[in-house]
Design goal:
Blueprint lengths: L4 E9 L11 E7 L13 E9 L2 E5 L5 E3 L4 E4 L5 E5 L4
Antiparallel strand pairs: 1-2, 1-3, 3-6, 4-5, 4-7
Length: 90
């Protein structure tokens, strides 16, 4: 098991009209064991996290925390607060 959780994050811009083409941004992030990202929100953007490795606990909006693992996809609506914790020991 890796010593961090790896996330692939796709950010899809929200547009006012359906005629505009959405251009997703793909990024990769790592969260060290026992660490939690700060609460944050992305204005006007839908995010999708794809957990690549490790074990985590994701918190989105007012939904109770959810355990996540490799292959899980987390959908985060625009302007919704969120954070993720690496709950693994390595």
């Amino acid at each position: 098991m890796p010593s961090f959780i790896r996330l692939k994050v796709a950010l899809s811009m929200s547009f006012q009209t359906s005629m505009q083409i959405q251009k997703p941004l793909i990024a990769q992030a790592r969260v060290l064991p026992g660490k939690t990202t700060r609460w944050h929100r992305i204005a006007g953007t839908t995010e999708r996290y794809v957990l690549l490795s490790g074990e985590g606990k994701v918190e989105v909006g007012n939904i109770p925390p959810q355990r996540v693992g490799p292959g899980d996809v987390i959908l985060i609506p625009p302007d919704c607060r969120q954070r993720i914790t690496n709950v693994g020991s390595t």
